[in-house]
Amino acid sequence: MRFDDSFNIVYPSWASFSYTWERLPSLLDDPLVSVHAKHYPYDWQRMGYSRITNNYSLHDGPFGNGIIRYDPSKLVDTEKKDAWLPIIVLGSEATLETPPGIPKFEWRDFRVSYLSPKPSDEERLGLKKQKNDPMPYFSVETWPGMELSAMVCLGFTKKARLGAELREFPLWLRAWELKAELWDEDKPPCAAVVEKFFAKWELKDTWYFVGTAGCDAGLFLAILVYLGGYLRSRRPQLKSVHMVTTLTTEVRMCSKWNPQKLR
User: Fold this and answer.
1) pLDDT tens per residue, the chain (263 residues)?
2) Cα 167 vs. chain centroid, distance in angstroms?
3) Which end of the chain, N or C, is less surrounded by CB atoms within 10 Å?
4) DSSP states of 11-58 as a string?
């Protein structure tokens, strides 16, 4: 698998903004005429933003909302390939956050972020405690011989029975046209790299899923962020989601990041 040039923005299933998922096509196609652009009365072209807005695709999630994916190589009228004008719509009510566990300085390696609601005025003033986003930690690990496949590991802080959500996890992946199945035998050999990574996370239970990687690594990680956020919102004991594959794109591995420094 490889990370291609596309940026992936996850609109979590638990998120709610005035720009609903259904309205996004019209808003992203012509962001400057939307009410959301009034938050930022700037000369966007002078700031280096591209006028090209039709370089994106929307991938529906099985639990509402989904993934926004745009191709920066098509922004031929600017040198700033991350200066995508529709961001002004998304940024009017949300910040683009790096998935927990992915070091922020490595964001450009993975090109995956998610929409996190901006804090309210009361939260900014400290009058109200800001809630953490229901997101687990994520890691991307490499293992030789898995060019066309990927393993997904779900780590829990409590014993996790094989309930409906875990049984249906492969079906959730298939909703994105990714084939997967529960690994119900002994732990797969590639599990070793994951176990070393979360040894200090005090996980009580893990479940493994192995499937065929039918997309690039960036979209696969974005899908896991979407599904991990959905599952964490329903099962708070889910602490981590790990993706193991063979990467043909050179990135700085998350395993070099100290898990103890995570919030």
Assistant:
1) 777 889 999 999 999 999 999 999 999 998 888 887 777 767 777 788 888 888 999 999 999 999 999 998 888 888 777 788 898 899 999 999 999 988 766 656 778 999 999 987 777 777 788 788 999 999 888 888 777 788 899 999 888 877 788 888 998 988 888 888 998 777 888 888 888 767 777 888 889 998 876 678 889 999 999 999 999 999 999 999 999 988 877 765 554 443 333 33
2) 22
3) C
4) E-TT---SS-GGGHHHHHHSGGGSGGGGG--S-TTTTT--S----EEE
Token output for 82: 């991350």
Domain boundaries along the sequence of the chain: 7-124, 137-261
Report the C-alpha gap between 222 and 66 in whole angstroms: 9
- Beta-bridge partners for 241: 138, 154
Third-level CATH fold of 137-261: Alpha-Beta Plaits (3.30.70)
CB 78 within 8 Å of CB 50: yes
